[in-house]
Protein backbone atom coordinates (compact mmCIF):
# COMPACT_ATOMS: atom_id res chain seq x y z
CA UNK A 1 0.00 0.00 0.00
CA UNK A 2 2.82 2.41 0.86
CA UNK A 3 4.56 1.62 -2.45
CA UNK A 4 1.43 2.51 -4.47
CA UNK A 5 1.07 5.85 -2.67
CA UNK A 6 4.73 6.67 -3.32
CA UNK A 7 4.37 5.90 -7.05
CA UNK A 8 1.29 8.10 -7.27
CA UNK A 9 3.15 10.89 -5.47
CA UNK A 10 5.98 10.67 -8.00
CA UNK A 11 3.62 10.81 -10.96
CA UNK A 12 1.91 13.93 -9.64
CA UNK A 13 5.29 15.52 -8.97
CA UNK A 14 6.49 14.80 -12.52
CA UNK A 15 3.36 16.36 -13.93
CA UNK A 16 4.00 19.52 -11.94
CA UNK A 17 7.61 19.56 -13.08
CA UNK A 18 6.60 19.19 -16.69
CA UNK A 19 3.99 21.95 -16.41
CA UNK A 20 6.44 24.31 -14.76
CA UNK A 21 9.11 23.63 -17.37
CA UNK A 22 6.68 24.50 -20.12
CA UNK A 23 5.69 27.70 -18.35
CA UNK A 24 9.07 28.94 -17.11
CA UNK A 25 11.44 27.24 -19.55
CA UNK A 26 13.93 26.27 -16.79
CA UNK A 27 15.49 22.89 -17.57
CA UNK A 28 18.14 22.85 -14.87
CA UNK A 29 15.66 22.50 -12.01
CA UNK A 30 15.25 18.72 -11.44
CA UNK A 31 12.09 18.96 -9.36
CA UNK A 32 9.56 21.72 -9.02
CA UNK A 33 7.91 23.06 -5.92
CA UNK A 34 4.17 23.36 -5.53
CA UNK A 35 1.94 25.54 -7.67
CA UNK A 36 2.11 28.25 -5.02
CA UNK A 37 5.73 28.89 -6.05
CA UNK A 38 4.55 29.84 -9.53
CA UNK A 39 2.03 32.24 -8.12
CA UNK A 40 4.63 33.89 -5.91
CA UNK A 41 7.01 34.58 -8.80
CA UNK A 42 5.01 35.21 -11.95
CA UNK A 43 7.93 36.99 -13.63
CA UNK A 44 9.60 33.61 -14.23
CA UNK A 45 7.25 33.02 -17.14
CA UNK A 46 9.20 35.55 -19.22
CA UNK A 47 12.57 33.91 -18.61
CA UNK A 48 13.80 32.20 -21.69
CA UNK A 49 15.27 28.73 -21.82
CA UNK A 50 19.01 29.02 -21.21
CA UNK A 51 19.98 25.50 -22.13
CA UNK A 52 18.67 25.36 -25.70
CA UNK A 53 22.20 24.68 -26.96
CA UNK A 54 22.36 21.46 -24.98
CA UNK A 55 21.64 18.12 -26.59
CA UNK A 56 18.03 17.07 -26.36
CA UNK A 57 18.92 13.46 -25.72
CA UNK A 58 19.87 14.19 -22.07
CA UNK A 59 16.39 15.40 -21.12
CA UNK A 60 14.78 12.62 -23.13
CA UNK A 61 17.05 10.07 -21.46
CA UNK A 62 16.07 11.40 -18.05
CA UNK A 63 12.40 11.17 -18.88
CA UNK A 64 12.83 7.65 -20.24
CA UNK A 65 14.57 6.56 -17.06
CA UNK A 66 11.81 8.03 -14.97
CA UNK A 67 9.19 6.19 -16.99
CA UNK A 68 11.09 2.92 -16.75
CA UNK A 69 11.53 3.34 -13.01
CA UNK A 70 7.85 4.06 -12.57
CA UNK A 71 6.96 0.96 -14.57
CA UNK A 72 9.29 -1.19 -12.53
CA UNK A 73 7.77 0.02 -9.27
CA UNK A 74 4.31 -0.64 -10.64
CA UNK A 75 5.23 -4.23 -11.49
CA UNK A 76 6.82 -4.79 -8.08
CA UNK A 77 3.78 -3.33 -6.39
CA UNK A 78 1.72 -6.26 -7.65
CA UNK A 79 4.03 -8.75 -5.98
CA UNK A 80 5.30 -8.17 -2.37
CA UNK A 81 9.03 -7.72 -1.99
CA UNK A 82 9.36 -10.29 0.75
CA UNK A 83 8.20 -12.99 -1.71
CA UNK A 84 11.15 -12.33 -4.05
CA UNK A 85 13.51 -12.10 -1.08
CA UNK A 86 12.31 -15.45 0.29
CA UNK A 87 12.67 -17.07 -3.14
CA UNK A 88 16.20 -15.77 -3.49
CA UNK A 89 17.12 -17.08 -0.02
CA UNK A 90 15.69 -20.49 -0.88
CA UNK A 91 17.81 -20.54 -4.07
CA UNK A 92 20.92 -20.35 -1.87
CA UNK A 93 22.03 -16.76 -2.55
CA UNK A 94 23.36 -15.04 0.53
CA UNK A 95 22.52 -11.48 -0.71
CA UNK A 96 19.63 -11.51 -3.23
CA UNK A 97 19.50 -7.67 -3.57
CA UNK A 98 23.09 -6.98 -4.56
CA UNK A 99 22.36 -6.74 -8.29
CA UNK A 100 19.28 -4.65 -7.69
CA UNK A 101 21.09 -2.27 -5.33
CA UNK A 102 24.05 -1.89 -7.73
CA UNK A 103 21.71 -1.11 -10.64
CA UNK A 104 19.90 1.52 -8.62
CA UNK A 105 23.15 3.14 -7.53
CA UNK A 106 24.40 3.31 -11.12
CA UNK A 107 21.17 4.92 -12.29
CA UNK A 108 21.26 7.50 -9.52
CA UNK A 109 24.88 8.32 -10.16
CA UNK A 110 24.23 8.92 -13.85
CA UNK A 111 21.17 11.02 -13.04
CA UNK A 112 23.15 12.99 -10.47
CA UNK A 113 25.96 13.70 -12.95
CA UNK A 114 23.52 14.96 -15.58
CA UNK A 115 21.76 17.05 -13.00
CA UNK A 116 25.06 18.56 -11.82
CA UNK A 117 26.13 19.53 -15.33
CA UNK A 118 22.81 21.08 -16.16
CA UNK A 119 22.64 22.99 -12.90
CA UNK A 120 26.17 24.37 -13.30
CA UNK A 121 25.27 25.83 -16.69
CA UNK A 122 22.04 27.18 -15.36
CA UNK A 123 23.72 28.83 -12.40
CA UNK A 124 26.10 30.69 -14.69
CA UNK A 125 23.17 32.01 -16.68
CA UNK A 126 21.17 33.01 -13.61
CA UNK A 127 23.81 34.89 -11.60
CA UNK A 128 21.98 38.15 -12.36
CA UNK A 129 18.63 36.85 -11.10
CA UNK A 130 17.02 38.23 -7.97
CA UNK A 131 17.58 36.84 -4.46
CA UNK A 132 14.04 35.31 -4.10
CA UNK A 133 14.73 33.14 -7.14
CA UNK A 134 17.83 31.67 -5.37
CA UNK A 135 15.67 30.89 -2.37
CA UNK A 136 13.25 28.99 -4.57
CA UNK A 137 16.14 26.94 -6.00
CA UNK A 138 17.37 26.05 -2.51
CA UNK A 139 13.93 24.86 -1.49
CA UNK A 140 13.68 22.81 -4.67
CA UNK A 141 17.03 21.10 -3.94
CA UNK A 142 15.84 20.14 -0.45
CA UNK A 143 12.64 18.65 -1.86
CA UNK A 144 14.66 16.68 -4.40
CA UNK A 145 16.84 15.33 -1.59
CA UNK A 146 13.68 14.21 0.21
CA UNK A 147 12.53 12.30 -2.85
CA UNK A 148 15.96 10.69 -3.17
CA UNK A 149 15.76 9.52 0.46
CA UNK A 150 12.32 8.08 -0.19
CA UNK A 151 13.72 6.19 -3.17
CA UNK A 152 16.42 4.65 -1.01
CA UNK A 153 13.92 3.53 1.61
CA UNK A 154 11.70 1.96 -1.03
CA UNK A 155 14.39 0.35 -3.21
CA UNK A 156 16.59 -1.10 -0.44
CA UNK A 157 14.31 -2.96 2.01
CA UNK A 158 15.40 -3.51 5.58
CA UNK A 159 15.72 -7.03 7.04
CA UNK A 160 13.66 -6.15 10.07
CA UNK A 161 11.60 -8.52 12.19
CA UNK A 162 7.97 -7.53 12.26
CA UNK A 163 7.12 -10.39 14.63
CA UNK A 164 7.09 -9.99 18.41
CA UNK A 165 10.48 -10.51 20.02
CA UNK A 166 9.34 -13.54 22.03
CA UNK A 167 7.93 -15.21 18.91
CA UNK A 168 11.17 -14.59 17.02
CA UNK A 169 13.10 -16.21 19.88
CA UNK A 170 10.73 -19.17 19.63
CA UNK A 171 11.77 -19.62 15.98
CA UNK A 172 15.49 -19.09 16.60
CA UNK A 173 15.65 -21.66 19.39
CA UNK A 174 15.62 -24.49 16.82
CA UNK A 175 18.91 -23.30 15.28
CA UNK A 176 22.37 -24.53 16.20
CA UNK A 177 25.49 -22.45 16.80
CA UNK A 178 26.54 -22.30 13.15
CA UNK A 179 23.07 -21.29 11.97
CA UNK A 180 22.84 -18.58 14.64
CA UNK A 181 26.18 -17.21 13.46
CA UNK A 182 24.90 -16.98 9.90
CA UNK A 183 21.70 -15.24 11.00
CA UNK A 184 23.73 -12.70 12.96
CA UNK A 185 25.28 -11.51 9.66
CA UNK A 186 21.94 -10.66 8.04
CA UNK A 187 21.09 -7.40 9.83
CA UNK A 188 21.39 -5.62 13.14
CA UNK A 189 17.97 -6.79 14.26
CA UNK A 190 18.82 -10.42 13.48
CA UNK A 191 22.16 -10.00 15.23
CA UNK A 192 20.41 -8.91 18.42
CA UNK A 193 18.14 -11.95 18.17
CA UNK A 194 20.95 -14.39 17.37
CA UNK A 195 23.01 -13.25 20.36
CA UNK A 196 20.22 -13.41 22.91
CA UNK A 197 21.38 -14.97 26.16
CA UNK A 198 18.39 -17.30 26.43
CA UNK A 199 19.27 -19.01 23.14
CA UNK A 200 22.89 -19.62 24.12
CA UNK A 201 21.86 -20.72 27.60
CA UNK A 202 19.67 -23.42 26.04
CA UNK A 203 22.50 -24.47 23.72
CA UNK A 204 24.83 -24.73 26.70
CA UNK A 205 22.29 -26.87 28.56
CA UNK A 206 21.68 -29.00 25.47
CA UNK A 207 25.38 -29.86 25.21
CA UNK A 208 25.54 -30.89 28.86
CA UNK A 209 27.31 -27.88 30.40
CA UNK A 210 26.14 -26.14 33.61
CA UNK A 211 23.04 -28.28 34.05
CA UNK A 212 22.13 -26.77 37.43
CA UNK A 213 22.60 -23.14 36.38
CA UNK A 214 20.00 -20.49 35.54
CA UNK A 215 19.90 -17.81 32.84
CA UNK A 216 21.18 -15.17 35.27
CA UNK A 217 24.19 -17.27 36.31
CA UNK A 218 26.38 -15.94 33.49
CA UNK A 219 26.52 -12.47 31.92
CA UNK A 220 27.33 -13.93 28.48
CA UNK A 221 26.30 -17.50 27.77
CA UNK A 222 27.83 -17.38 24.31
CA UNK A 223 31.29 -16.86 25.82
CA UNK A 224 30.53 -19.48 28.47
CA UNK A 225 29.70 -22.07 25.83
CA UNK A 226 32.85 -21.21 23.90
CA UNK A 227 34.98 -21.61 27.02
CA UNK A 228 33.34 -24.95 27.84
CA UNK A 229 34.01 -26.24 24.34
CA UNK A 230 37.62 -25.13 24.46
CA UNK A 231 38.07 -26.79 27.84
CA UNK A 232 36.52 -30.04 26.58
CA UNK A 233 38.78 -29.94 23.53
CA UNK A 234 41.81 -29.45 25.76
CA UNK A 235 40.83 -32.32 28.03
CA UNK A 236 40.34 -34.65 25.07
CA UNK A 237 43.73 -33.71 23.66
CA UNK A 238 45.38 -34.26 27.04
CA UNK A 239 43.71 -37.66 27.38
CA UNK A 240 45.01 -38.78 24.01
CA UNK A 241 48.51 -37.45 24.60
CA UNK A 242 48.72 -38.50 28.27
CA UNK A 243 49.28 -34.93 29.43
CA UNK A 244 48.13 -34.25 32.97
CA UNK A 245 49.04 -34.11 36.62
CA UNK A 246 48.96 -37.05 39.03
CA UNK A 247 48.37 -36.98 42.78
CA UNK A 248 48.78 -39.80 45.28
CA UNK A 249 45.88 -39.90 47.76
CA UNK A 250 47.42 -41.90 50.56
CA UNK A 251 45.96 -41.90 54.06
CA UNK A 252 48.20 -44.10 56.19
CA UNK A 253 50.82 -46.62 55.23
CA UNK A 254 49.93 -50.16 56.14
CA UNK A 255 46.18 -49.63 56.03
CA UNK A 256 44.30 -51.74 53.49
CA UNK A 257 41.91 -49.92 51.20
CA UNK A 258 38.40 -51.45 51.24
CA UNK A 259 36.28 -49.30 48.92
CA UNK A 260 36.50 -46.03 46.95
CA UNK A 261 33.82 -43.73 45.53
CA UNK A 262 34.11 -40.42 43.65
CA UNK A 263 31.82 -37.64 42.46
CA UNK A 264 32.97 -34.48 40.67
CA UNK A 265 35.96 -33.24 42.70
CA UNK A 266 35.32 -35.44 45.78
CA UNK A 267 37.04 -38.77 46.51
CA UNK A 268 35.88 -40.96 49.43
CA UNK A 269 37.77 -44.00 50.72
CA UNK A 270 37.25 -46.53 53.50
CA UNK A 271 39.95 -48.66 55.17
CA UNK A 272 40.23 -51.80 57.27
CA UNK A 273 41.13 -49.65 60.26
CA UNK A 274 37.57 -48.27 60.27
CA UNK A 275 38.70 -44.83 59.10
CA UNK A 276 36.91 -42.91 56.34
CA UNK A 277 38.77 -40.21 54.44
CA UNK A 278 37.33 -37.54 52.12
CA UNK A 279 39.47 -35.57 49.66
CA UNK A 280 38.48 -32.42 47.81
CA UNK A 281 40.79 -32.30 44.81
CA UNK A 282 40.07 -28.60 44.26
CA UNK A 283 40.87 -27.54 47.84
CA UNK A 284 43.55 -29.76 49.30
CA UNK A 285 43.65 -27.82 52.56
CA UNK A 286 39.96 -28.37 53.30
CA UNK A 287 39.20 -29.44 56.89
CA UNK A 288 36.39 -31.69 55.73
CA UNK A 289 38.94 -34.34 54.77
CA UNK A 290 38.78 -35.86 58.27
CA UNK A 291 35.51 -37.67 58.89
CA UNK A 292 34.76 -38.92 62.38
CA UNK A 293 32.98 -42.22 62.91
CA UNK A 294 29.99 -42.75 65.18
CA UNK A 295 30.61 -43.32 68.88
CA UNK A 296 29.43 -46.96 68.75
CA UNK A 297 31.94 -48.02 66.13
CA UNK A 298 34.68 -45.80 67.56
CA UNK A 299 34.46 -47.44 71.01
CA UNK A 300 34.48 -51.00 69.64
CA UNK A 301 37.79 -52.85 69.80
CA UNK A 302 38.88 -53.84 67.31
CA UNK A 303 37.09 -51.30 65.18
CA UNK A 304 34.94 -52.81 62.42
CA UNK A 305 36.13 -52.61 58.85
CA UNK A 306 34.51 -50.29 56.32
CA UNK A 307 32.52 -52.39 53.86
CA UNK A 308 31.04 -49.80 51.43
CA UNK A 309 31.38 -46.07 50.73
CA UNK A 310 29.25 -43.81 48.52
CA UNK A 311 29.34 -40.07 47.78
CA UNK A 312 27.47 -37.47 45.78
CA UNK A 313 27.77 -33.68 45.59
CA UNK A 314 26.18 -33.04 49.02
CA UNK A 315 26.59 -36.06 51.32
CA UNK A 316 28.97 -38.98 51.87
CA UNK A 317 27.98 -42.37 53.31
CA UNK A 318 29.87 -45.36 54.70
CA UNK A 319 28.77 -48.73 56.08
CA UNK A 320 30.69 -50.98 58.49
CA UNK A 321 30.93 -54.68 59.13
CA UNK A 322 28.79 -54.40 62.27
CA UNK A 323 25.79 -53.01 60.31
CA UNK A 324 26.28 -49.32 61.18
CA UNK A 325 25.81 -46.62 58.57
CA UNK A 326 27.17 -43.04 58.84
CA UNK A 327 26.41 -39.99 56.71
CA UNK A 328 28.44 -36.77 56.53
CA UNK A 329 28.04 -33.46 54.81
CA UNK A 330 30.65 -32.78 52.13
CA UNK A 331 30.68 -29.10 53.11
CA UNK A 332 31.28 -29.41 56.85
CA UNK A 333 32.64 -32.93 57.38
CA UNK A 334 33.46 -33.75 61.02
CA UNK A 335 30.67 -35.50 62.94
CA UNK A 336 28.05 -37.61 61.12
CA UNK A 337 24.77 -35.85 60.37
CA UNK A 338 22.86 -39.15 60.35
CA UNK A 339 23.50 -42.61 61.81
CA UNK A 340 21.61 -45.90 62.09
CA UNK A 341 22.36 -49.59 62.49
CA UNK A 342 20.84 -52.65 60.79
CA UNK A 343 21.12 -56.15 62.26
CA UNK A 344 23.59 -58.17 60.24
CA UNK A 345 26.22 -57.31 57.69
CA UNK A 346 25.33 -54.77 54.99
CA UNK A 347 25.56 -56.41 51.57
CA UNK A 348 24.90 -53.35 49.39
CA UNK A 349 24.85 -49.58 49.83
CA UNK A 350 23.60 -46.96 47.36
CA UNK A 351 23.36 -43.17 47.28
CA UNK A 352 21.25 -41.20 44.83
CA UNK A 353 23.33 -39.03 42.48
CA UNK A 354 20.66 -36.30 42.40
CA UNK A 355 19.39 -35.92 45.98
CA UNK A 356 20.18 -36.93 49.58
CA UNK A 357 18.57 -40.39 49.49
CA UNK A 358 20.32 -43.49 50.87
CA UNK A 359 19.40 -47.15 50.47
CA UNK A 360 21.04 -50.05 52.31
CA UNK A 361 20.48 -53.80 52.18
CA UNK A 362 21.41 -56.30 54.89
CA UNK A 363 20.47 -59.80 53.82
CA UNK A 364 16.95 -59.56 52.42
CA UNK A 365 16.02 -56.41 54.38
CA UNK A 366 16.04 -53.15 52.44
CA UNK A 367 15.87 -49.69 54.03
CA UNK A 368 15.45 -46.34 52.28
CA UNK A 369 16.27 -43.07 54.10
CA UNK A 370 15.81 -39.53 52.81
CA UNK A 371 16.30 -35.95 54.01
CA UNK A 372 13.47 -33.44 53.98
CA UNK A 373 13.68 -29.76 53.06
CA UNK A 374 14.90 -28.84 56.56
CA UNK A 375 17.74 -31.36 56.44
CA UNK A 376 16.26 -33.90 58.85
CA UNK A 377 16.69 -37.55 57.87
CA UNK A 378 13.90 -40.08 58.21
CA UNK A 379 13.13 -43.61 57.05
CA UNK A 380 10.92 -43.51 53.98
CA UNK A 381 10.57 -47.21 53.15
CA UNK A 382 11.40 -50.59 54.63
CA UNK A 383 10.78 -53.84 52.78
CA UNK A 384 11.92 -57.43 52.68
CA UNK A 385 12.73 -59.48 49.61
CA UNK A 386 12.57 -63.28 49.27
CA UNK A 387 16.34 -63.54 48.69
CA UNK A 388 19.52 -61.81 49.75
CA UNK A 389 20.25 -58.57 47.93
CA UNK A 390 23.61 -58.70 46.19
CA UNK A 391 23.71 -55.40 44.27
CA UNK A 392 21.62 -52.27 43.80
CA UNK A 393 21.70 -48.98 41.92
CA UNK A 394 19.70 -45.75 41.80
CA UNK A 395 17.93 -44.50 38.70
CA UNK A 396 19.56 -41.10 37.89
CA UNK A 397 17.99 -37.80 36.77
CA UNK A 398 14.88 -38.01 38.92
CA UNK A 399 15.33 -34.86 41.00
CA UNK A 400 11.66 -33.84 40.73
CA UNK A 401 10.19 -37.34 41.00
CA UNK A 402 10.09 -40.19 43.45
CA UNK A 403 13.43 -42.05 43.72
CA UNK A 404 13.68 -45.46 42.05
CA UNK A 405 16.07 -48.25 43.06
CA UNK A 406 16.90 -51.35 41.01
CA UNK A 407 17.91 -54.36 43.14
CA UNK A 408 19.36 -57.73 42.17
CA UNK A 409 18.73 -60.68 44.48
CA UNK A 410 19.86 -64.05 43.16
CA UNK A 411 17.97 -64.71 39.91
CA UNK A 412 15.48 -61.85 40.46
CA UNK A 413 15.60 -58.16 39.58
CA UNK A 414 13.27 -55.77 41.42
CA UNK A 415 12.25 -52.14 41.01
CA UNK A 416 11.69 -50.36 44.33
CA UNK A 417 9.45 -47.28 44.43
CA UNK A 418 8.72 -45.77 47.88
CA UNK A 419 5.25 -44.77 46.74
CA UNK A 420 4.31 -48.39 46.03
CA UNK A 421 3.59 -50.99 48.70
CA UNK A 422 5.78 -53.78 47.30
CA UNK A 423 8.76 -53.86 44.92
CA UNK A 424 7.90 -54.72 41.34
CA UNK A 425 9.56 -57.78 39.77
CA UNK A 426 11.26 -57.03 36.45
CA UNK A 427 13.05 -60.32 35.73
CA UNK A 428 13.12 -63.78 37.27
CA UNK A 429 14.52 -66.96 35.69
CA UNK A 430 15.30 -69.92 37.93
CA UNK A 431 18.93 -71.04 37.83
CA UNK A 432 20.16 -67.92 35.98
CA UNK A 433 21.72 -65.59 38.58
CA UNK A 434 22.38 -61.89 37.95
CA UNK A 435 26.11 -61.05 37.82
CA UNK A 436 26.14 -57.25 37.26
CA UNK A 437 23.68 -54.37 37.28
CA UNK A 438 23.36 -50.74 36.10
CA UNK A 439 20.58 -48.28 35.22
CA UNK A 440 20.01 -45.07 33.28
CA UNK A 441 17.07 -42.68 33.53
CA UNK A 442 14.88 -44.86 31.27
CA UNK A 443 16.54 -48.31 31.06
CA UNK A 444 18.18 -50.88 33.29
CA UNK A 445 20.72 -53.48 32.16
CA UNK A 446 21.99 -56.56 33.97
CA UNK A 447 24.10 -59.57 33.07
CA UNK A 448 22.64 -63.07 33.46
CA UNK A 449 24.71 -66.21 33.90
CA UNK A 450 23.25 -69.18 32.05
CA UNK A 451 23.86 -72.78 33.00
CA UNK A 452 22.92 -76.18 31.66
CA UNK A 453 20.76 -76.34 28.57
CA UNK A 454 20.58 -72.54 28.32
CA UNK A 455 24.27 -72.36 27.33
CA UNK A 456 23.33 -73.81 23.93
CA UNK A 457 21.31 -70.64 23.22
CA UNK A 458 24.32 -68.39 22.72
CA UNK A 459 25.80 -68.35 26.21
CA UNK A 460 25.54 -65.58 28.78
CA UNK A 461 23.45 -62.52 27.96
CA UNK A 462 22.79 -58.94 29.01
CA UNK A 463 19.11 -58.06 29.34
CA UNK A 464 17.86 -54.49 28.95
CA UNK A 465 14.46 -53.55 30.42
CA UNK A 466 12.38 -50.40 30.16
CA UNK A 467 11.72 -48.78 33.54
CA UNK A 468 8.47 -47.21 32.38
CA UNK A 469 6.78 -50.35 31.07
CA UNK A 470 8.76 -52.99 32.98
CA UNK A 471 9.15 -55.00 29.77
CA UNK A 472 12.35 -56.25 28.08
CA UNK A 473 13.52 -54.11 25.16
CA UNK A 474 16.63 -55.90 23.91
CA UNK A 475 18.96 -58.77 24.75
CA UNK A 476 22.62 -58.52 23.70
CA UNK A 477 25.79 -60.51 24.18
CA UNK A 478 26.76 -64.09 23.50
CA UNK A 479 29.74 -65.16 25.56
CA UNK A 480 30.77 -68.29 27.45
CA UNK A 481 32.24 -66.12 30.24
CA UNK A 482 30.31 -64.29 32.92
CA UNK A 483 29.64 -60.59 32.52
CA UNK A 484 31.41 -58.94 35.45
CA UNK A 485 30.52 -55.26 34.87
CA UNK A 486 28.17 -53.18 32.76
CA UNK A 487 27.89 -49.42 32.31
CA UNK A 488 24.71 -47.89 30.93
CA UNK A 489 24.45 -44.65 32.93
CA UNK A 490 27.57 -42.93 31.59
CA UNK A 491 27.57 -44.45 28.09
CA UNK A 492 26.59 -42.47 24.98
CA UNK A 493 22.93 -42.69 23.88
CA UNK A 494 21.86 -46.09 22.54
CA UNK A 495 25.20 -47.65 23.54
CA UNK A 496 26.15 -50.09 26.30
CA UNK A 497 29.66 -51.06 27.40
CA UNK A 498 30.43 -54.17 29.45
CA UNK A 499 33.30 -56.34 30.64
CA UNK A 500 33.56 -60.12 30.79
CA UNK A 501 35.64 -62.84 32.38
CA UNK A 502 36.74 -63.84 28.89
CA UNK A 503 39.11 -60.82 29.09
CA UNK A 504 37.17 -58.71 26.58
CA UNK A 505 35.50 -55.31 26.65
CA UNK A 506 32.48 -54.98 24.36
CA UNK A 507 30.33 -52.09 23.19
CA UNK A 508 26.79 -52.89 21.99
CA UNK A 509 24.34 -50.83 19.96
CA UNK A 510 20.94 -51.20 21.64
CA UNK A 511 19.08 -50.21 18.47
CA UNK A 512 20.45 -53.04 16.33
CA UNK A 513 21.46 -55.48 19.11
CA UNK A 514 24.88 -55.76 17.50
CA UNK A 515 28.43 -55.52 18.83
CA UNK A 516 30.29 -52.41 17.69
CA UNK A 517 33.63 -52.91 19.47
CA UNK A 518 35.27 -55.99 20.97
CA UNK A 519 38.66 -55.46 22.64
CA UNK A 520 41.02 -57.96 24.22
CA UNK A 521 41.73 -55.87 27.33
CA UNK A 522 42.92 -57.71 30.49
CA UNK A 523 44.38 -61.19 30.80
CA UNK A 524 42.90 -61.76 34.28
CA UNK A 525 39.41 -60.51 33.46
CA UNK A 526 37.71 -57.12 33.36
CA UNK A 527 36.75 -55.65 36.75
CA UNK A 528 35.28 -52.25 35.78
CA UNK A 529 34.50 -50.33 32.62
CA UNK A 530 33.23 -46.89 31.58
CA UNK A 531 32.86 -45.07 28.26
CA UNK A 532 31.94 -41.73 26.75
CA UNK A 533 31.48 -40.55 23.18
CA UNK A 534 35.06 -41.28 22.05
CA UNK A 535 37.00 -43.36 24.63
CA UNK A 536 36.70 -46.44 26.82
CA UNK A 537 38.41 -46.82 30.21
CA UNK A 538 38.71 -50.34 31.61
CA UNK A 539 40.25 -51.80 34.74
CA UNK A 540 41.43 -55.36 35.19
CA UNK A 541 42.01 -57.71 38.10
CA UNK A 542 45.76 -57.54 37.44
CA UNK A 543 45.80 -53.83 38.39
CA UNK A 544 46.04 -52.25 34.94
CA UNK A 545 43.90 -49.31 33.80
CA UNK A 546 43.66 -49.05 30.00
CA UNK A 547 42.36 -46.21 27.83
CA UNK A 548 40.99 -47.15 24.39
CA UNK A 549 39.95 -45.10 21.39
CA UNK A 550 36.43 -46.29 20.59
CA UNK A 551 36.28 -45.53 16.87
CA UNK A 552 39.63 -47.11 15.96
CA UNK A 553 39.56 -49.77 18.70
CA UNK A 554 43.19 -49.08 19.62
CA UNK A 555 44.81 -48.69 23.01
CA UNK A 556 45.99 -45.17 23.70
CA UNK A 557 47.92 -45.94 26.86
CA UNK A 558 47.79 -47.91 30.10
CA UNK A 559 48.99 -47.45 33.66
CA UNK A 560 49.48 -49.59 36.74
CA UNK A 561 49.04 -48.72 40.40
CA UNK A 562 52.27 -49.98 41.93
CA UNK A 563 51.30 -49.74 45.60
CA UNK A 564 48.27 -51.26 47.25
CA UNK A 565 46.16 -48.91 49.32
CA UNK A 566 47.22 -45.78 47.36
CA UNK A 567 44.65 -43.93 45.27
CA UNK A 568 46.05 -42.29 42.12
CA UNK A 569 44.20 -39.16 41.06
CA UNK A 570 44.87 -38.08 37.46
CA UNK A 571 43.87 -34.60 36.29
CA UNK A 572 43.81 -34.08 32.52
CA UNK A 573 42.23 -30.63 32.64
CA UNK A 574 45.54 -28.77 32.87
CA UNK A 575 46.67 -27.25 29.62
CA UNK A 576 50.38 -27.99 29.99
CA UNK A 577 52.79 -29.85 27.76
CA UNK A 578 55.93 -29.78 29.89
CA UNK A 579 57.75 -32.90 30.98
CA UNK A 580 56.67 -32.36 34.59
CA UNK A 581 53.02 -32.79 33.70
CA UNK A 582 53.49 -36.15 31.99
CA UNK A 583 52.31 -38.98 34.19
CA UNK A 584 55.13 -40.61 36.17
CA UNK A 585 54.22 -44.05 34.82
CA UNK A 586 54.78 -42.66 31.32
CA UNK A 587 58.25 -41.27 32.24
CA UNK A 588 59.77 -44.48 33.53
CA UNK A 589 63.44 -44.88 32.63
CA UNK A 590 63.46 -48.62 33.52
CA UNK A 591 66.24 -48.08 36.05
CA UNK A 592 63.79 -48.70 38.86
CA UNK A 593 63.39 -52.47 39.15
CA UNK A 594 59.74 -52.25 40.19
CA UNK A 595 58.86 -50.26 37.10
CA UNK A 596 60.79 -52.61 34.84
CA UNK A 597 59.32 -55.81 36.27
CA UNK A 598 55.77 -54.69 35.53
CA UNK A 599 56.64 -54.86 31.82
CA UNK A 600 54.63 -51.78 30.92
CA UNK A 601 53.65 -51.59 27.23
CA UNK A 602 53.01 -48.01 26.10
CA UNK A 603 51.63 -47.09 22.72
CA UNK A 604 53.60 -43.82 22.41
CA UNK A 605 56.28 -43.99 25.14
CA UNK A 606 57.99 -41.00 26.68
CA UNK A 607 60.63 -43.32 28.15
CA UNK A 608 64.23 -42.20 28.33
CA UNK A 609 65.91 -45.38 27.10
CA UNK A 610 69.31 -43.91 26.31
CA UNK A 611 71.75 -45.02 28.99
CA UNK A 612 69.11 -46.80 31.01
CA UNK A 613 70.96 -50.09 31.23
CA UNK A 614 74.68 -50.43 31.93
CA UNK A 615 76.68 -52.09 29.15
CA UNK A 616 77.52 -55.75 29.57
Overall description:
By secondary structure, this protein is α+β, with helices and mostly antiparallel strands. Among the domains are: 160-244, Monooxygenase (Up-down Bundle); 316-574, Methylamine Dehydrogenase, Chain H (7 Propeller). 29% of the residues lie in helices and 28% in strands. The protein has 13 helices and 30 strands. The strands form eight sheets. The chain has a four-stranded antiparallel beta sheet, with no helix packed on it. Helix 1 packs antiparallel against helix 3 (56-78) and helix 10 runs parallel beside helix 11 (221-241). The longest helix has 28 residues, at 98-125. The chain starts with a helix and ends in a 19-residue tail after the last helix.
Task: Please give a quick description of this structure.
With 616 residues, the protein is α+β, with helices and mostly antiparallel strands.
Amino acid sequence: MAANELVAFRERWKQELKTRKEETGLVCVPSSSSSSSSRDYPEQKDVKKPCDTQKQDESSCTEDEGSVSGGRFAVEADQPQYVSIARSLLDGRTSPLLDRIQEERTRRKRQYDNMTNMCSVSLQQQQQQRQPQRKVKKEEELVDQLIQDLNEVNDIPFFDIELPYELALKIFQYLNCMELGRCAQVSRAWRVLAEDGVLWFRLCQREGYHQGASVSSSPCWKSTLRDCRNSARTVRSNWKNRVGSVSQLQFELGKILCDVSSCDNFVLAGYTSGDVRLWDTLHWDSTSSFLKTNSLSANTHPRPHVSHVQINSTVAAASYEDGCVDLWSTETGGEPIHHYQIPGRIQALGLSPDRPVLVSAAGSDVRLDSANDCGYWRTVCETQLPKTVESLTFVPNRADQSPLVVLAAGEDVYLLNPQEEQPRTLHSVYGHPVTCLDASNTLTAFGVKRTGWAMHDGGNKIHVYSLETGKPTVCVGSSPGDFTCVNLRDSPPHLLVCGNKDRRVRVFDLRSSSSLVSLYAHHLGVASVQADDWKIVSGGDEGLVCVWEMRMGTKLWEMHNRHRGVISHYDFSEDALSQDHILPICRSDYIDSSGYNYNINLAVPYDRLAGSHPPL
